[in-house]
Amino acid sequence: MTDTASPDTATPDTASPDTGTPDTGTPDTGKQDAPPATNISFSGGIAGFLAANALSLAFTSYQSGRLYLLGHGANGKLAIHEAQYRQAMGVVGDMHRLYLGTLTDIVRLENVLQPNQLANGKHDKVYVPRNVQVVGGIDIHELGVRDNGVLVFVNTRYSCLCEPSLTHSFRPIWKPNFISKLAPEDRCHLNGLAMVDRKPKYVSAVCRSDVVDGWRDRRHDGGIVIDIDTDEIVAEGLSMPHSPRWHDGKLWVLNSGSGELGWIDMAEKAFKPVAFCPGFLRGLAFHKGHAIVTLSKPRYKRFDGLALADTLDAKEADAWCGVQIISLATGDVAHWVRFDGPIQELFDVCVLPQVKNPLTLGLNTPEIANFISMEPPAWGA
User: Fold this and answer.
1) Which stretches in the chain have pLDDT values below 50?
2) How far apart are CA 55 and CA 366, in angstroms?
3) Contacts for 106-109: CB closer than 8 Å, 24+ residues apart
4) Beta strands 333-340; 349-353: pairing state
5) What is the pLDDT of residue 2?
6) How many CB atoms lie within 10 A of CB 341?
7) What pLDDT score was predicted for residue 303?
């Protein structure tokens, strides 16, 4: 592989003085003016947690249009690398591949490094965009990958679950039975997807509305989680639920309007909170006995009557933008990363097992023009 890119040349963002400075990659901004500095602070043990569990994290910010990779360097520091993707939303992947939903596209990124190969002397994975599926402005939210490798994604604008199409923007495969027509109206704000045994199984929506933008009037307690095999509503009365996930025999979900992580008691069809988080929750992943969540600050400086705002006031706390790693046994925050500055909203997060210090390149950057990799020739060595 020819490695001619040198992405790691930026001045690190200022971190909390009691936790050190993270190893940051160069934002893929090309020749644009540098954005205002983002202050990144983090818990002292998070790099050790990632190292001890042999994992990295990928998470997105649609507000700033960035894909972030969070790993750890050989020097024991936290390593944060980023690339620009317009309205970066759902992300799913592993040590070999990432899929990313953006404003108009689904991007497939492949790790181009071989085992034990390093880029720039320290990166064990380099995720490079190799395919862009143009789907248009359908407001992609979460993604999943079936056991046969076919991608599944939430099409929020058209209120349905979809697969990619070779000839069209998307192929609808399921819609809620209360949606009477597939129209570009974001009727119920379908947003989250839970895969079970690598098959789509549960989705979340803000309400049952069947009119254009109707979900905005039902944010307080209209939220539902649906079993797509039976069309059964397995939980209701939620406040803007996001990111249903099946983990360790339970269906977990973020009750975002109340700032709570919890699980669904299927017998009672009730939400059981486990932890409160000081921010609007949108992304959820798991590793062993921990949940990883993304938090956002409020839009327009308020949560418009949601319970989250009242709880923050009662706790005399400000909303966060960042990532928290929560113990499922206690509900306590074990580790965290916090963003202060222009980045105020995050979306999805996924775990990358057996990945130490990953790097990624954006689509429209000088670096990607010179980062060339080649498979072995068909005729052999």
Assistant:
1) 1-21, 24-32
2) 29
3) 106/132, 106/133, 106/135, 106/140, 106/143, 106/151, 106/153, 106/164, 107/131, 107/132, 107/133, 107/363, 108/132, 108/133, 109/360
4) unpaired
5) 34
6) 15
7) 62
Q: Do residues 127 and 111 touch, judged by C-beta distance below 8 A?
A: yes
Residue type for position 121: G
User: What are the phi and psi torsion angles at 51 (to 5°)?
Assistant: -65, -45
pLDDT (0 to 100) of residue 118: 94
Q: In what order do the strands lie in the sheet with 140-145?
A: 140-145, 151-155, 160-163, 171-174
Cβ neighbours of residue 254 under 8 Å, at least 6 residues apart? 192, 241, 242, 243, 260, 261, 281, 282, 284, 293
Q: Output the CA angle 66-362-2, nearest 5 degrees.
A: 145
What whole-number distance in Å separates Cα of residue 277 and Cα of residue 261? 8
Domain boundary assignment for the chain: 30-320+335-370
CATH number of 30-320+335-370: 2.120.10.30
Q: β-pairing, 199-205 with 66-72?
A: unpaired
Q: Who's near 21: CB < 8 A, 6+ residues apart?
A: 12, 14, 15, 77
Structure tokens at 217: 């009037």
* pLDDT score of 34: 61
Beta bridge partner(s), residue 195: 200
pLDDT (0 to 100) of residue 298: 84
Contact predicate 111/125, CB 8 Å: yes
pLDDT at 74: 87
| Res 35: pLDDT | 61
CA angle, residues 188, 350, 373, in degrees to nearest 5:
120
pTM, two decimals, is: 0.89
Angle, CA of 123, 129 and 130, to the nearest 5°: 120
**With contact defined as beta carbons under 8 Å apart, do 192 and 285 qualify?**
no
**Dmax of the chain from CA atoms?**
69
